[in-house]
Amino acid sequence: MCDADGIATPMSFWDNAHTTLFQFEDWACKHTVRVVADTYFSNKSFIQPLLSRKTPIHMITKLKRNAVGYLDPEKPQTKKRGRPRKRGQKIKIVDLFKTEPIQSISVCLYREIRAIEVVAKDLWILELDRKVRIVVTKLGSNVMALISTDITLNPTQIIEIYGSRFSIEIAIRDMKQLLGLGDYQHQALLPTFRFIHFVAVAYSVGKIALLKYANSSWLQAQDYQGDTPWTSELSFKKLRICLRRFSLGKLVFSKTALDQEVEKNTSVKDAILTIAS
Predict the structure, then answer these.
(1) What is the dihedral of CA 210, 212, 213, 214, to 10 degrees?
(2) For residue range 189-207, what is the model confidence (pLDDT) as tens digits?
(3) Which regions of the chain carry the CATH code 3.90.350.10?
(4) CB distance 69 to 99 below 8 Å
C-alpha cells in the first residue's frame, strides 16, 4: 500500500477487507451498501474507516459478551478547567436488560415469525467517533447484543438484517463445497468473474429446482427436525442427505425394474450414479 509520499507499507488484513468493500461500493454505483459481519469484525480497526468515508458504509455486527459502552457525559453545573469529557458512565452491554425498558417484538427469522424480547439504546462504543444503536436480544436463555452504525434502523430491522447473513453464508459454503466456486483455473480478472457468475447461476437454478420439487417423496427425511439455517428445504445439504438415503434405499431394500438395470453395473459407485441421474 503506497501513501501520498510514495512510501509503501504492507497491507494488513483490514486493509484488504476495506479495499474489497470500497471496490464493491464503486461497482454498486448509487445503490446503498451495508456490511453485515460476525463478531470478529466488531472492532474500531474495521468499522471506523467505513464510517469516515464521504458516504459512510454502515455496518451491522454482533458484539462480544464482555463488550462495554458509554453513556453521554453529564454536563457539569459549573465550568471546570481542562478538556470536557467525551464519554459518560461505563456500562456492560448485557446489563442493559436490567436497567432499560424491555420491548417485545415480532421478527421474521428463517421464514418463521418469532416473538423476542429486546432492549435498544444508542451508546458510544468501540472508541468510534459517533454513537451507534445497540440492540440486546433475549430468546429463551440466549442473550445476544447487536450494533448498527445506522441509527435510523429499528430493532426489528437490525435483527432481521443480521439474520439474513446466514443465508448468504450458506450459499457461499454450498457453492464452494458442491459447485467448485474456488476451483477456477484463471489468473485474469474477467474469466474469473465469468466463472464465479456461472457458478452463481448454477446455484440459483438448483435452488429453483429444489423449490419446484420440494414436495417430492424422496426429499422428505423421516427424522427431519424442522428448518434451521443449515438444513432448510432449499438447502443443498438436505438434498445430498436425501439423495444418499434414496440411492442406498433403492440399492439395499427395493425390488424394482430399476434394480435390474443397476445390477448390470460392476460397482456400487456406478449404481448410485445411475439412480441419481
Answers:
(1) 70
(2) 788 888 888 888 888 887 7
(3) 13-73+85-163
(4) no
